[in-house]
TrEMBL record, chain A:
The chain crosses the membrane at residues 37-57, 64-86, 127-150, 157-175, 205-225, 256-274, 294-317, 329-353. It is a multi-pass membrane protein. Its main location: membrane. It is found in: Cell membrane. Residues 361-383 are annotated as: Disordered. Pfam families: BPD_transp_2. One of its GO terms (molecular function) is branched-chain amino acid transmembrane transporter activity. This is Urea ABC transporter permease subunit UrtC.
Automatic annotation (TrEMBL), chain B:
Signal peptide: none annotated. The lineage of its organism: Bacteria, Pseudomonadati, Pseudomonadota, Alphaproteobacteria, Hyphomicrobiales. Keywords: ATP-binding, Nucleotide-binding, Transport. It comes from Lichenibacterium minor. Residues 11-251 form the ABC transporter domain. NCBIfam families: urea_trans_UrtD. The keyword Nucleotide-binding applies. CDD domains: ABC_Mj1267_LivG_branched. This is Urea ABC transporter ATP-binding protein UrtD. Pfam families: ABC_tran (PF00005), BCA_ABC_TP_C (PF12399). PROSITE patterns: ABC_TRANSPORTER_2. The keyword Transport applies. One of its GO terms (cellular component) is plasma membrane.
Length: 383, 251
């Protein structure tokens, strides 16, 4: 019954920054001359665009983990499926420009002696269809998987393990040539998206702006969901699942719905990621990717949405730097970071910010009785 | 199904048996509760009181026996959420509230309203919801604490909040497991008053060890021992029963 300020001041700043970046970054990349102090290279734009896709993935994970207690260790699977959907569209756009110049079949199919397009590829010449599939396929998988897992009351570590198994199974499946998705090599050598060269500066800037808007929309949806009574129920499930059942809520329905929504969000992130990096292959299903996403959320602040996005950007920025400077130490650093955050910053970076600002702020108004410890300790769920 | 005792009952347990890995927690428990009745259940630790509540609320499936609600609904075929929706509310032995929600949100989540995932995602709270929550907060003496995080309440206040959540659910039958454990004497007296108030328009089953509290309630008492009913009647009569004395003092 709290007054739900759906976004809160932090959320509004987050949205403002994203929308400003959507306008200013492409402007700086396209309108200022190279060498100008205001100029951003296409390389930088694409790099940050990639971080934004990771941020959307982190946001989707925070929705299930931070707000419903489902530690999904297979979130990368939904991201990769969304990526494949977009990759298939991009493959179809190559048309007869492939090495085999076959107008009907992508190169890898010609190479593998396909005679016609498998049914799984039907419709992927259409951009709207590909976008729909980037949402629907991860969503449908999460719906079916979640329904059975949650109905059987698989929770905690067991659930985490089977989500990890899910992404691993998909990894193995997509490696197989018979699956018809390019096997080991995946999908690459993209040429056009919506009639524009994927590698051109203008397309890169547009993809960046789209990623900003998608992240902003993802945030708006996540904030609306977590701010609704539905969100209060999922937090209650996270904290005391069986109590929620005895109140008459069907816990499995809530979990399935939030899991499905989150998978669709992850799928969208993957769909935006692929045209920016220019390739999608089974490696995206690697369990390690999903675990990294968990670390981003933990570092930024679980159950804060904005923190999850921030964590994804910061950790990946660090990764870009360290894998360049000291490639052999990055994994140790990442592991160490996770241990440190778990031990000393259970609420992540945003929790730390809350703690520091709460110390400085004067006490709250007298109308609301406040426990003394509440003034210094962060709340597990901010906003 | 034509048994008049069954059809006129609100809750009907007959020869219920539950065992955990061979340990028989309930051994032929039978109990009948009339609509709007308040009943106190006493019995030593391990007598099966909590297990009985688990059976009624669908947490534990009995190995044998019948459990009917309202004379016709077989509770052994339903799950927790269905049973809650039928109108059976439960307060746990260990107070269980949603620690990270405010006190008023806890009550609001329990409030009788559509429980479906889409209903709570897209629906709006009923116009009188606020009033109902406020009324309950006053009744459970937590009005001044309504905006606090429930996890920051004292143990006694959490117990009251859980009773408030039961009130919000407005069930036909309330199952209350050891509501005064760990309470001070004055908190205990307040709780007894609260439960008597609730019993005016709800059927209530209270499990409690505290004899002074049970005396305060002034209702029919059922004594459980080793998973079955040992005695039943007014407190004065059952406490004079030599078998009851034996169970309580003879250990
Ligand atoms: N889930 C369970 N698994 C194994 N044994 C249980 C379980 N629940 C209860 N018991 C056992 O059943 C007996 C009755 O327990 P309980 O109903 O909690 O008693 P009471 O509430 O009367 O103290 C105890 O001996 C307890 O150890
Ligand atoms: Mg007990």
């Amino acid at each position: 019954m709290q007054n739900h300020r759906t976004f809160g001041p932090r959320g509004l700043v987050f949205l403002a920054v994203l929308l400003a970046a959507a306008a200013l970054v492409p402007a700086s990349s396209l309108l200022t001359p190279a060498g100008s102090a205001l100029h951003l290279s296409t390389y930088a734009v694409t790099l940050v665009g990639k971080y934004l896709c990771y941020a959307l993935l982190a946001l989707s994970l925070d929705l299930v983990w931070g707000y419903c207690g489902i530690l999904c260790l297979g979130q990368g699977a939904f991201f990769a499926l969304g990526g494949y959907a977009m990759g298939m569209y991009l493959m179809r756009q190559i048309g007869a420009r492939g090495s085999y110049a076959n107008p009907d079949l992508p190169d890898f199919m010609v190479f593998l002696n396909y005679h016609s397009l498998p049914w799984t590829w039907w419709g992927f010449s259409s951009f709207p269809y590909a976008v729909l599939m980037a949402l629907a396929v991860p969503g449908a998988l999460a719906l079916v998987f979640g329904y059975f897992a949650f109905r059987s009351r698989v929770t905690g570590v067991y659930l985490s393990i089977i989500t990890q198994a899910l992404t691993y199974a998909l990894l193995l499946a997509f490696f197989r040539n018979e699956m018809g998705f390019g096997g080991n090599n995946g999908l690459t050598d993209f040429k056009d998206i919506l009639g524009h060269d994927v590698r051109s500066d203008g397309t890169r800037a547009a993809l960046f702006a789209t990623s900003c808007v998608a992240l902003a929309l993802g945030y708006v949806v996540a904030a609306a969901v977590t701010g609704s009574k539905f969100g209060q129920v999922t937090v209650a499930i996270r904290d005391a699942e069986s109590r929620v059942r005895f109140l008459g809520y069907r816990v499995e329905h809530y979990k399935t719905l939030v899991f499905t929504l989150s998978a669709m969000m992850a799928g969208m992130a993957g769909a935006l990621y692929v045209p920016q990096v220019g390739i999608i292959n089974p490696g995206e299903f690697a369990p390690a990717n999903s675990i990294e996403a968990v670390i981003w959320v933990a570092v930024g602040g679980r159950g804060t949405l904005v923190g999850a996005a921030l964590g994804a950007v910061l950790v990946n920025w660090g990764k870009t730097y360290f894998t360049g400077a000291f490639p052999e130490y990055w994994l140790f650093l990442l592991g160490g970071l996770f241990v440190l955050v778990t031990l000393f910053l259970p609420q992540g970076i945003l929790g730390l910010v809350d703690r520091l600002t709460a110390r400085r702020r004067p006490g709250p108004p007298a109308e609301r009785p406040v426990a003394p410890e509440e003034q210094v300790l962060p709340r597990p769920v901010a906003e | 199904m034509t048994d008049p005792v069954l059809t006129s009952s609100l809750l009907y347990l007959d020869d219920v048996r539950v065992s955990f890995d061979g340990y028989k927690a309930l051994r032929g428990l039978s109990l009948v509760l009339a609509p709007n009745e308040m009943r106190a259940i006493i019995g030593p630790n391990g007598a099966g009181k909590t297990t009985m509540m688990d059976v009624i609320t669908g947490k534990t499936r009995p190995d044998e026996g019948t459990v009917f609600f309202g004379g016709s609904v077989d509770l052994t075929k339903r799950d927790e959420a269905e049973i809650a929706e039928l109108g059976i509310g439960r307060k746990f032995q260990k107070p269980t509230v949603f620690e990270n929600h405010s006190v008023d949100t806890n009550v609001a989540l329990a409030l009788k309203a559509p429980r479906g995932a889409f209903a709570t995602l897209f629906g709006r709270a009923a116009r009188d919801a606020r009033e109902k929550v406020d009324g309950i907060l006053r009744r459970i003496r937590l009005w001044d604490h309504r905006a606090r995080r429930a996890g920051d309440l004292s143990h006694g206040q959490k117990q009251w909040l859980e009773i408030g959540m039961l009130l919000a659910q407005d069930p036909k039958l309330l199952l209350v497991d050891e509501p005064v454990a760990g309470m001070t004497d004055s908190e205990t007296a307040t709780t007894a008053e609260l439960l008597r108030e609730i019993a005016r328009d709800h059927a209530v089953v209270v499990v409690e060890h505290d004899m002074a509290f049970v005396r305060d309630l002034g209702v029919k008492v059922t004594v459980l021992h080793e998973g079955a009913v040992l005695a039943e009647g007014p407190l004065d009569r059952v406490s004079a029963d030599p078998r009851v004395v034996e169970v309580y003092l003879g250990r």
